[in-house]
Amino acid sequence: MSETARDDVRARVTAFLAEHDPATTEPLTFLRARYDAGLAWVSYPEGHGGLGLPQELQPEVDRLFARAGAPGNNVRANGIGLGMAAPTILAFGTEEQKRRFLRPLWTGEEIWCQLFSEPGAGSDLAAIATRAVRDGDGWVVNGQKVWTSGAHNSRWGILVARTNPDVPKHQGLTYFLCDMTDPGVEVRPLRQITGEAEFNEVFLTDVRVPDAHRLGAEGEGWRVANATLNNERVAIGSGGGVPRGGGMVGVVADTWRAHPERRTPELHDRLLTLWVEAEVARITGLRLRQKLKQGQPGPEGSAMKLTFARLNQRLSGLEVELLGEDGLRYSDWTFVRPDGVEFTGRDAGYRYLRAKGNSIEGGTSEILRNIVAERVLGLPSEPRVDKDIPWKELDK
Amino acid sequence: MSDLDLLFTDVEDDLRASVRALLTDRCDPASVAALYDGDRAVVAGLWKALAADLGLAGLLVPEEHGGAGASAREAGVVLEELGRFAAPVPFLTSAVVATVALADAVGPLLAELAAGEKTAALAVPLSASPYTPVPLPVRRGPDGLLHGTATSVAGALEADVLLVPVRDGATVALYAVGADAVARTPVVSLDMTRQLADVVLDGAAGEVVVADAEAALRRALLTGAALLASEQAGLAQWCLRATIAYLKERRQFGRVVGGFQALKHRLADLFTEVESGGAAARYAAVALAEGAPDAELAAAVAQSYCGELAVHAAEEAVQLHGGIGMTWEHPAHLYLKRAKADQIAFGTPGAHRAHLAGLVDLPT
Ligand SMILES: Cc1cc2nc3c(=O)[nH]c(=O)nc-3n(C[C@H](O)[C@H](O)[C@H](O)COP(=O)(O)OP(=O)(O)OC[C@H]3O[C@@H](n4cnc5c(N)ncnc54)[C@H](O)[C@@H]3O)c2cc1C
């Protein structure tokens, strides 16, 4: 990447900040103006919050805004919107959809959730049973979703539903943008291992979705959903450009530094081994992002997410052990519904328990290994007994 | 030296069956999970049934003190079952650690514990290892009363008596202090099935029960570590069994998920580890029971292995259940939290390996 591009974007941020003082501008006004100036996600096209620049410039832009004390856009609550819904809408949305949804998504005015998994369809997402039936210029949706993170805070949901049960399971799916304020949407909290209820069950009863909120063609839902999943895996796995020694390894390193009395050669060696692995993961992520440029991520992101999950789990497990007596304590088991997701938040016990989800959410580590083995390495796939049978005839 | 007999006797099988029947009946996952919301209703009744009705409180206490005069073999069997149910009872802390600490004690306390009339807890952190001197935060003041705070004490909430180690000149004395003479602050614990408490002594009257207690304390913690391995092995067995059962039922991709070879290999590996852990834990218990010369080595081996095993098995259970494994509704989380806390209890696996290094001449 040329230095001129970097200088140019720096100059734009400086000019923007000169015109919109973060200290005196109302946060939402600031965020909307930042979006309109193309400084939200610089790799997006002009008119949709970006400038069509290389993705590598984004961390620099974010840093400059953060240093100036610019307001944040609620990343904690809107990870699914920013990391998954947005790139999918960008890739598959109509101009109209991009204009309607991307700006309030980026500013955090509208939070998004992911209505994919169902009780009977987790790893086998293509087996979902939620039905969408055509009705005039819209669709009527009935079914049940589960493990829906943040549904209780969300204005919109990305939804995969079955529109044609007469064809094999992958072919009869369609992707929708679901209004979570529709009276047919009922969100019930599901308590998690950590005590809180980050995720939910979502019951959809005669929910009306206008055809204008269909994303991609009818029957194309599997392809659109995979774009979302690949983005999810990169979003979770790449650590979003965490600096050296940052993220979970940084948290554990701080604990190490704060507790000289707990140090042993064994723990030291384990910590350093994981530190090296985290640094290597960071470099691998850097290279992957450079390779991808503006393109849609493919199955390679799955390998990153595998590493990320394993590291987070081992690091957080080590931290509890390192803390010894303090590791036996927990902050709070109260059943609350948090307003966002934070892998490195709260106490060591919380981080340890929450990290267990990292190898399940967004595709389990077993499924990701299958994806790497089959789609990256080209190994033969497992016999697929249900691939060519119409969905309605499958054993359920 | 002939090999130790690691097989279970008929008497031990019967003991296991009666403990299991009782736990099946009275220790359901929903009541155990309720502990995390402050509802401890399950504890008292369950402990009374185990301690007094089944007579387990005095299992390790010699008959002349009113106990059953059984050994670490039987205690290990009980602990395996308690691990399988993540049972929230103070068996390990009172019937094992406290009674061992009191083996040479003066006074009626040991007999009261044996009868299940009283429950005791050693006032040291659950994380205290047998290989380092126990922390001595409590001192005897000029008023002759005890002052200080013992933190992270397991079994304190259920205890009628706290056994408090206190420096006494060149030695350490063990005091018995009535629970009503102290303030117990419950700790929000990672494992609420063995909830900890901070015990505050602010001028508490105590009675010396063991005058020179250093050896007794070490023996108590070493026994705790050795027998905790049985609990960990039982816990790991539950995790394996529950996961196998689930994966035989759960269908995805038009198939039973347990039929995927990747998962079969995982479960076969876990089975191998669980079998190994069970053997190591049993060996440690039998070695202790027989007073074998390698009992200390066996304890370090068992605790080092089973501390990791229980965590690994619980982590596999969560992972292989998928989303449901991350919920409160499914009991897997109770085992994960218990296993992670157990890994720290009585010394981490690393601490046991470091001690072992000296015993088997593998210096750093
Ligand atoms: C914290 C958290 C947040 C989540 N948030 C969301 C969300 O916001 N929206 C959403 O839609 N979903 C969400 N999920 C759901 C998640 O995507 C699913 O849990 C996941 O895809 C697994 O599905 P399942 O739970 O049905 O497990 P199953 O698919 O039943 O899997 C059970 C076990 O079998 C293994 N397995 C399955 N198939 C194979 C195979 N072919 N080969 C080898 N092993 C296999 C799995 O890896 C797993 O270990 C979330 C989950 C968690 C834990």
The ordered H/E elements of chain A are HHHHHEEEEEEEEHHHHHH
Kindly report the spatial arrangement of strands forming the biggest sheet of chain B: 1-4-5-8
Helical content of chain A stands at: 40-55%
Terminal-residue CA separation of chain B = 29 Å
Describe the structure.
- The complex is a heterodimer of chains A (396) and B (364).
- With 396 residues, chain A is of the alpha+beta class.
- Chain A folds into three domains: 3-107, Butyryl-Coa Dehydrogenase, subunit A, domain 1; 112-218, Butyryl-CoA Dehydrogenase, subunit A, domain 2; 224-376, Up-down Bundle (Butyryl-CoA Dehydrogenase, subunit A, domain 3), CATH 1.20.140.
- Chain A is 42% helix and 13% strand.
- Chain A contains eleven helices and eight strands.
- Chain A has helices at 3-19, 27-36, 58-67, 79-92, 95-107, 221-237, 247-258, 265-292, 300-323, 348-355, 365-376; strands spanning 112-115, 131-135, 138-145, 156-162, 173-179, 185-190, 199-210, 214-215.
- Chain A has a four-stranded mixed beta sheet with strand order 1-4-5-8.
- In chain A, a hairpin with a 2-residue loop joins β2 and β3 (138-145).
- Chain A is globular, with a radius of gyration of 22 Å.
- Chain B folds into three domains: 10-118, Butyryl-Coa Dehydrogenase, subunit A, domain 1, CATH 1.10.540; 121-212, Butyryl-CoA Dehydrogenase, subunit A, domain 2; 215-359, Butyryl-CoA Dehydrogenase, subunit A, domain 3, CATH 1.20.140.
- The longest helix of chain B has 36 residues, at 214-249.
- Chain B is 50% helix and 14% strand.
- With 364 residues, chain B is an alpha+beta fold.
- The model of chain B has no long low-confidence stretch (mean pLDDT 97).
- Chains A and B meet through α8, α9, α10 and α11 of A and β9, α9, α10 and α11 of B.
- Flavin-adenine dinucleotide sits between chains A (113-114, 116-117, 122-123, 147-149, 199, 357, 360-361, 363-364, 366-367, 370) and B (250, 252-253, 257, 260, 262-263, 319-320, 322-323, 326).
